[in-house]
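Homework help board

Subject: predicted structure for assignment chain

Our instructor gave us this sequence and asked us to write out the predicted structure in token form, then describe one feature. I got the tokens but I'm not sure how to describe them. Can anyone check?
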Amino acid sequence: MPLTTAPDTCPTSVGAAILNLLLPHHRTTDHAPVAAGAFPHQLRLITDFVRRDAPVVFTLPGFPCKSPNPAKVLGHLPDQGERLSLTFLHTLCTHIERIHPPGAHVIICSDGHVFGDLVRVPDEHIDAYADELRVLISRLELTRLSVFDLRDVLGDLPHDTKRAHVHDRYAPALDALRAETRADAHSLALYRGITRFLVEDTADHIGTRSALQRECRRRAYGVIQRSRAWGALIAEHHPEAVRLSIHPQPIGAPKFGIRLLDAPDAWTTPWHSAALRRTDGTWALMPRTQAARLGRLVRHEGRASHFEQT
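My token output:
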């Protein structure tokens, strides 16, 4: 990761230097090179933290649960993909600390329970995944990271009750969301991307592919509704934080898309794939079946972890 040093102690200059650390990892479908000034929203928020001499706080919705499709992942618990991604985020915070001594903190907003019923993952698997994220953060001493999920907001209420509460209070109306998707290219790309993931994640469908696609298109709107609701809840609980996203974001959008690991497209995440260590020592994310063709399985502490290219 390249280091950037602030030219002076002007809060805006330091804020721009921090943002420049994020730019090489920007997850976007845009390809033109940009500078920190192209992100006025993020620059203003980061500069506010610098001006107060406070740690820069980022929120990152994601790390929900593993895909239910065994052709894509190694199991329902975090593995090397998550370990590498969490370590990357922690390292990014340490680099920020070199130019802004109070440093930075990333709050992993684990959103599996928000739409677990829509992505067809059991709630007990989602709990186990989030619990293991906390274990990894502690074991790897990633002190600049923490996990926030629905249990932090609604305690031990039944999962369906939590989902209904979040949806009813924060989700946009379905008709308005459909109209936005028809009118906005970015919203349409997100809708299509989520639909594709839902189709790919369905491993046990009985019926025609066209019927599956219709069902997944319906569920995709629900996922987007819940995702928007979760974003609104996060903003309510962390109003000053800089919002990151694991989805591609246009240049200058309110959310800054961030790429965690190398992957064949801008949508791949550690929880929809397996990690492959290439012969040159670099890492890539890909479906488990593809990684298995390229390398041998490696186990870590008794569990399948990743593949080593052969």
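Reply (TA_rk): Your tokens look well-formed. For the description, you could write something like this. The first helix runs from residue 11 to 22. That's the kind of observation they're looking for.
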